[in-house]
Amino acid sequence: MRHIAIIGSGPAGYYSAEAAQKKFGENVAVDIIDRLPVPFGLIRTGVAPDHQSIKAVSRRYEKTNSGDNVRFVGNVTVGVDVSVAELQEFYDAVVLATGAPEDRVLDIPGSDLAGVIGSAAFVGWYNGHPDFRDLDPPLDARSVAIIGNGNVALDVARILAKTEGEFAGSDIVGHALDGLKQSAVERITFLGRRGPHQIAMTPKELGELGHLERARPVVEAEDFPDIGDDAMLEPGMRKSVNYLRSFQIAAADAEHKPIEIAFDFFAMPIEIQGEGRVEKLIIERTELDKDLRSIGTGELYELECQLVISCIGYRTPPIEGVPYEHGRGRFANSDGRILPGLYCVGWARRGPSGTIGTNKPDGAAVVEMINEDISENSRKPGRAGLDSLLASRGVETVTFRDWKKIEEAEVARAREGSPREKFTDIADMIAARD
């Protein structure tokens, strides 16, 4: 019997547990430990609430929890309730699947002004993450600047621009829906340092912008390279660029839509200004060098805005005693190995890159490493050791069966047409299981 602890219950954690089940059968006991009382990580609190088809992957993870050899241990904070070193005493292998839940720092003057928000916080707010339930973003803003040209930036803009009716079938939390109904937003501007051929926006998500009821995407024709250059792009990127080109054509036909979503390419924010709150961005025009890197031209201009949302990437928070690469915002590792008996997967290993499905081969690879490194004949106590320690410290754990009760309560309190109304307070989550 091998005893494995996985820290984090998002896709990387569950794919690792699934791989362990397939590899070791009944000769493994896996504990999936999470600081929240609810599982599934970014599936619950990161994926956009209007992308329910993506969230459906959680049903696969539920099957992983159906056997006795995989257990969810919620409401346990590693580094507070139990240390990594203590877990290594109990388990043959400890796998860090903590993801990258923190924003990369927007390191420009004025980034500490009121009205400057990171995407992790804003996405967490509308998805009901307990850490951000009280964010209260200033939606009285008429003009919003979104820094970044990736899918998270698209999610943020789409959520800001949708009508109440367009959220039908989503699980956006009530406090966010109420706030958005009062929104004064008239203009949303994407700011990207490079051009249309370098965006990180995928076709499906980009195409959604063209079907919003009250918002029209706008792209300036002069930002595009010659249309013949599109042939050099890989198919997915070419499709994304085709959408951008179609936006410049369709913009005039959609002038009746009151919200404008503008793409400002070759734009590098260098300062945020305002008296106590964001009032404008100072932006430097950029160009591409021969290696397609953006470089400043010295040309400056201003963008009036009252809300700035930074979507420039994420980082994995350090854990005491675990080697860490500060420059890359991830744990120091060699293909997933950190130290003997200590591993990492997903964004905690790679940094914030790839899709949800990218975590599946990551999970399989780490289980192969564990098979190579760890003997089948364990002498460690595994979950019995953890349970004893947590009980001695008065830590109240949440099981997967408890989670199913929490989920039932969320479904029961849903508004009409919504799959659930999430609890956003940890105490309420725990109370709902009783």
Structural description of this entry:
This protein has helices spanning 11-24, 42-45, 52-55, 58-64, 84-90, 119-127, 151-161, 174-181, 203-208, 235-250, 347-350, 359-373, 383-392, 400-412, 426-432, and strands spanning 2-7, 28-33, 70-73, 93-96, 102-103, 116-118, 143-147, 187-191, 215-219, 259-264, 267-273, 280-288, 294-304, 307-310, 314-315, 324-325, 330-331, 337-339, 342-344. The chain is α/β, with parallel strands linked by helices and 434 residues long. The protein has a six-stranded mixed β-sheet with strand order 3-2-1-4-19-18, sandwiched between helices. Strands 6-14-7-8-10-9 form a six-stranded parallel β-sheet. It has a three-stranded antiparallel β-sheet with strand order 11-12-13, with no helix packed on it. Helix 1 crosses helix 12 (359-373). The protein is globular. The protein starts with a strand and ends with a helix.
Number of domains: 2
* CATH level-4 homologous superfamily of the largest domain: NAD(P)-binding Rossmann-like Domain
CATH architecture of the largest domain: 3-Layer(aba) Sandwich
Strand content: 15-25%
Q: The CATH topology of the largest domain is what? A: Rossmann fold
- Oligomeric state: single chain
Annotation field: number of helices:
15
Number of DSSP-assigned strands = 19
Low-confidence stretches: none
Secondary-structure-based class equals alpha/beta
Describe the strand arrangement of the main beta sheet, using strand numbers: 3-2-1-4-19-18
Estimated radius of gyration? 23 Å
Q: What is the class of the largest domain in the CATH system?
A: Alpha Beta
Main sheet specs:
6 strands, mixed
What is the general shape? Answer: globular
